[in-house]
Amino acid sequence: MKYKLLGRSGLKVSELCLGTMGFGTEGGWGADKDISFKIMDDFANAGGNFLDTANIYKLGTSEKIIGEYLSNQDRDYFVLATKYTLKDNTTNPNASGNNRKNMMRSVEESLKRLKTDFIDVLYLHIWDDVTPIDEVLRGLDDLIRQGKVNYAAISDTPAWVVAKGNTLAELMGWSQFIALQVEYSLIQRTPERELIPMAKHFGMTVTPWAPLAGGALTGKYLRGEQGRIKAESVRRDENSEKITKVVIEIADELGVTPAHVALKWTMQQGFSCIPIVGATKVEQLHDNLKTVDVKLSDDQLKRLDEVSAIKLGFPGDFLKEEAVRTNSFGGFYDRVEKR
């Protein structure tokens, strides 16, 4: 794999990120320790170094498996990302949320499970709409100054909150968010309204979760296969089926799988984007790794963009339509496009 810089940093990460939410067998599904080790081995042998986990994945088992694996590996080769926010115990009222107390507690617990002295990238997992963003940024910066975390990142948070946070961090001399993790795929393009433009402005790398839309873009629902969780049914409607059929058509043209097409689409959108590919089976990983050798043509990208297009809403559609209709900006947009 090739390596990319993560956001506005010098941190080099592989062009695919390995998602480890399925490491552990709690809940009756997932990969056991031996299979998880094999998946990480093969990912590293393919040049992969970017691992994504969270304190709550498999009730902490995901971090424990990674920690045991890394204790016998070159720790510095891997770029390890984890998250805090969601409740991982019931010991106290502050065992969840974005607050500093939970942040510090969660990080200490993650360090123990991961058997490491530092976390490369720490994500705020989901915005709690309670904690002030300056409390979050100051806490993350303190962890970075202590050497327990190298970089700060954020997930599942409104664009205006992230923008305020990075602007405040720049003003105060604190560490800024370098990556943004959101759901993004051909079936879920709503981040293009606010989140992705914001990420581009601040030079943040987007790390999409569910880039295959819970498997919908592989065509498994069209084949009559059932999803693991009922929530995946929201990705099974007439529109998603129409999009998936085009994905399958292009996959047939290229002689690859639909998953390769869907993943590569996120990587060819003109901004820094590293999709998170989960795997609970070695064969799944091997198939996902082939994505790096796929190249979508301009025509294929156009067909995918057209079939999955969304309305930007106000003010996005209004500004675009008004500029075209009235030439209000003196042809400025036309000149930018030509450049």
Description of the structure:
The structure is a single chain. The protein is an alpha/beta fold and 339 residues long. It has two domains: 3-308, Alpha-Beta Barrel (TIM Barrel), CATH 3.20.20; 309-339, no CATH class. Helices cover 40% and strands 12% of the residues. It contains twelve helices and ten strands. Helix 1 packs parallel to helix 9, helix 2 packs across helix 3 and helix 5 runs parallel beside helix 6 (195-201). The mean pLDDT is 93. Pfam families: Aldo_ket_red. GO terms for molecular function: oxidoreductase activity. Residues 15-308 form the NADP-dependent oxidoreductase domain. Keywords: Oxidoreductase.
Shape: globular
Q: How are strands sequenced across the largest beta sheet? A: 9-8-7-6-5-4-3-10
Radius of gyration: 20 Å
* Count of the domains: 2
CATH topology of the largest domain: TIM Barrel
CATH class of the largest domain: Alpha Beta
Number of E-type strands: 10
Average pLDDT for all residues: 93
- CATH evolutionary superfamily of the largest domain: NADP-dependent oxidoreductase domain
Q: Could you spell the SSE succession in H and E letters?
A: EEEHEHEHEHEHEHEHHEHHHH
Please tell me the CATH architecture of the largest domain by its name: Alpha-Beta Barrel
What is the percent of helical residues?
A: 40-55%
* Major β-sheet profile: 8 strands, parallel
Low-confidence stretches: none
End-to-end C-alpha gap: 30 Å
Portion of residues in beta strands equals 5-15%
Alpha plus pi helix count: 12
Derived structural class = alpha/beta
Keywords: Oxidoreductase
Organism: Mucilaginibacter ginkgonis
GO molecular function, one term: oxidoreductase activity
Pfam family, one: Aldo_ket_red
